[in-house]
Amino acid sequence: MMKQILVTGGAGFIGSHLCKRLLKEGNNVICLDNFFTGTKNNILPLLSDPLFEIVRFDVTHPYYANVDEIYNLACPASPVHYQYDAIQTIKTSVLGAINVLGMAKSAGAKVLQASTSEVYGDPIVHPQTESYWGNVNPIGIRSCYDEGKRVAETLFMDYHRQNDVRIKIIRIFNTYGPNMHPNDGRVVSNFIVQALKNEDITIYGEGNQTRSFQYVDDLVEGMVRMMATGDDFIGPVNIGNPHEFTIRQLAEKVIELTGSSSKITYKDLPHDDPKQRKPDISLAQEKLDWNPNIQLDEGLLKTIKYFKSILK
Ligand code: NAD
Ligand code: UDP
Questions:
Q1: Which residues, judged by CB distance below 6 Å to any ligand atom, belong to the binding site of ligand 1?
Q2: Residue bearing the CA closest to ligand 1, atom 22
Q3: Is 145 among the catalytic positions?
């Protein structure tokens, strides 16, 4: 059955893939975005679909649409962009959560929060399970994002307990793919853009820190499956690819797959940069019957192809 679905942050990297998928399933999709890090280019191919609408709006203000489902993705996700205006970032997470939850309450909608592995901070438990409470610095340069997302999770749980709002919380681990902005600042897009331009590849620190990279199509599948679960499962649930790589391994892989003549250069490690990150996905496997299907080489090749097409 056709549903009315609101996607906040729908013009961003993940949001644009999600909007495309929801339209393909025959839903009416409202993409709400203030275009801080998202772009019209990402959703240009969707504009001709009569079931697609765009609203330029900032989620720190109340908004109302009589929808069945809300995916709350609005929030800059790259450290460079979320630190650019830290106060706006925390307002986006906290006021944004209050506003979408209020809307969900009035509309009787189901609402899914795009939370993050950053709620685990610089994790001491490895791999990270949902039961781990995390190791977050409350006063550091990443706190506007980490604590903002943690408060958003709290708000989701409290609106659920206090007001019976139907919620879903997913904790997304490092995701990459086409539609990342070339100046996004995150590691996969930085390395690919640098490699394609034969510029130095910038490793922060020594490159021994680890991340586990998920291709965007796998994430979107997990999001849609999570939204479709019954009211008895609300999460939080980790959605990520558990294959763990050091940042140096990633740099070497990108150089190899692009055939670039780039050299590696080392820069200062930013404060509070997590040393390791890898999701335990047993809960998603059990509750969503979900597994990531696209491994790093295949996903990187698709992403390299995308950046080649926009950089030429
Ligand atoms: P992105 O920066 O490409 O997308 C974020 C979108 O939100 C952009 O279109 C931006 O313009 C919009 N936005 C920002 N502030 C807004 C506001 N106040 N009002 C309305 N729109 C606003 O990032 P992304 O990677 O697509 O991330 C999407 C969501 O997923 C974010 O909530 C992010 O925290 C979460 N997430 C992403 C990852 C990842 O690896 N990509 C990991 C964990 C969590
Ligand atoms: N990183 C890097 N070079 C870059 C960008 C990032 O070495 O040009 C490192 C960064 O310090 C971190 C890892 O890559 O250790 C992942 O960074 P990203 O910003 O993509 O995401 P997050 O730190 O939020 O996981």
A1: 8-9, 11-15, 33-38, 58-60, 73-77, 92, 114, 116, 172, 174-175
A2: 74
A3: yes
